[in-house]
User: Fold this.
Amino acid sequence: MEEMEEQDIGLLYPSRSGSCTGSTETIASRLTSRQPSPIELHVPIDGVGSRQDPLSPLKSPSMSNVHDTHFGLRPVGQKTVIRSRTLPRLPRFDTTIQLSSEFTGFEFERDRALRMSQWVLAFAIVNFDLDLGPVVCGVYPPLCLTPAEKENIAFSSFPDSLQFEQGSEVHSFRIQDLGASTKDVGLDNGNSRSGSIDGYLYGYSHFSQRRDNTSKRGYQQTSLVLLSHQQYPALLTTLIMKLGPLFLTHGVPMLETACHNIANWCSPSPGLTAELGFLGSVLHVELPMTADTQQLTDTASFREKFDTTLHLLSSIAPLDPPPISIFEASLSHLWSIWECLILCEPILVFGSSPAATSQAVWWLRDLLRPIPLANDFRPYFTIHDKDHSLLVNKLPPKAGLILGVTNPFFQKSCTHWPHVLSVGVKASPRRQGSATILAGPPPGWCTKTHRRYISKDRQLLKATENACQASIQDRIQASLDLRRHFCLRTNTMLVPLNRYLNTLIPSPTECITVSGCRRLKPFSSADFFSSLKANGSPLPFKSAAKRREFYERWLKTPAFGLWLAQQEEVVQKTLQDKWAG
Assistant:
């Protein structure tokens, strides 16, 4: 683009040593023979102002009680996991080891790697190279990755804007799964991986920047990335938040322990509720029935009242920080944003950090359920992504695309996008005087084309705005209340359609007299709108004309086609099973 030069991460970060820290004497001794000398890397900071993350820093797990064997939780349908069995008693070591692309010094049987891959494919360690930028320097267990995938993982695991002098942040990303196999040319000699669920790899990154007096730039930077095929943002973000700080303290032995912990878990299955032991803690987790199932706190299967400090609904967006904090500047516009999501309108989500954009995008994706996902979404997207030219160009953006970005370059290259959501805290007059100037659009919602069809819930809006000034627990509860409201709206939006589809189910008489009539009758838009006019909709539309226009637009979206195909499949299977019996 001529308007603004693409900003490379290499210009934004001080460097770190290309090494990772080791831990126990046993592991260190096994690696002594293959330790190259650490290489000092330095990256200049040229011409780019720092940007302060408006969110509270993520809290690292405390090391003070990691060996405590008492957890005080009731078992959920299976034997309780003892915390002490999931975390080794390791001293702290400052030994530095250089990681190769394969962890040949560790033994991890193939069958255990396969068991682990049902949840987590592998962990990747990413360091910064002055000439190449972020580089994957180790993958454990060894995993086949194409060069393009490794480059995507490397750049997606680092923030592309300077947020702090030292600290850490956790974010997630979604990249194309290129289906690597051991027969492909140019791949690492790692384990082949199973086919993806939806054609994508999901990465959950713990990025850390620490002061290092041995470095000429004074910093170390590294990212530990969890790779998975599963859309479990709440669960997998929790794992990397627990493992990241322990990995920085104890090194790769903690990584090896984490892999063995995960390999000991039961196989994931639809609707599973289980206790999962991980690095000295017990995670109470519920999995969704399908990728499009809404997990709600009031219908969770934990056999006790849902507690945000104990229970994890794996498919929802992380609750740290409370989601209403990142949407604070756009709370009054969330009803318009929800309509744009349902109508498959493309949305550019701009944030000051990957942590903010990834949490926001996961939250928006969740509101679509139970409508099937018909489009692409990227929790954190960089100019180095292999799909950059496909998703960001001069053409109209793809229907329903949700793109989370932090680089101000996208503000120039996406001026033709119809909707931009900039997440963050709305600046008050008191804050503006001392606030750091942020690159990119100010927090808020900007739309060029959308006019709202449905009335907002002003009482809920007021309560949510008040909660933004309350305690963290109050903000979490307000976030869950807001999510429940929009999940209910999505289900309510489908009520007129489900009502009409019931009229298309063939009666027993028709199934007997009409050969092969064991499926839904053809959908008729005219008949549907006649039904809609006669019966209305539970949603508070501003007018009957607005109601009709909304559904006319939704029937033209790719999401409607997928949803209708799912309903036809369910009805056809039910009828076939009934007559087969």
